[in-house]
Amino acid sequence: MRVPNSVVLPVGTHVDCCREEEVEEKRRDIMAKMTAMLAERKSNLAHFIHNLEGSEEPEFYMDQWERLKEMENCTLTILNLVAVNCTDHRDIKKLEAAILEHVKNEELFPEVVRVLPPIYRQVEAAIVDIAQSEEMADHGMVDLHYLLSKLSQCKHLANLDRELLQDILRYLHRIGLVIWYEEIKHLESTVFLQPTFLITMFKLLVRYRLVQELESIS
Prior knowledge:
Layout: E1 6-8, E2 11-12, H1 20-53, H2 62-72, E3 76-78, E4 82-83, H3 89-103, H4 118-132, E5 141-143, H5 144-152, H6 162-174, E6 190-192, H7 195-205, H8 210-215
Parallel strand pairs: 1-3, 2-4
Antiparallel strand pairs: 5-6
Helix pairs in contact: 1-2
């Protein structure tokens, strides 16, 4: 809801726990609730903006008003829900096919036809090599400056500068090859070359009854 022109594909799992007629009923119910949620969000944003504009000293709320206007302009496209039975490999392939069909839709993703400069592919290939090298730790965390120096050692990337690397990292972050939290001050100089490591960490740290487990330790 905070990202411009977002596209969301809802996925309903546990189809194997439902009767066939239930699946369609639940699909309609979920889609209706999401439509209502978006309508409520739009109404709430308009209400907040109206209140700020009608305040006695609106200049004091200009920053807040600008943030709300930005959020108001963030469109959100919700695609039809795909219902899957996760225990059936055929359903997983059906979901994969649905995702591929949507991401190739130029109306949904205008940038899908954008031609990337060759250096984007060269840096991507070099980063994959670095991530898979024996000297790279399993966690795949590297300092941004160190990554730039490693890439610059490649003959065809000798002229790579920090600004261009950051642009390429933003692209690689969007496609999920790396994770780079440039907006977080304490992480802006760290690049995660192994996103699966973060998933493993989150699974260990963010889980059911974690607080109770920690409190049980003397």
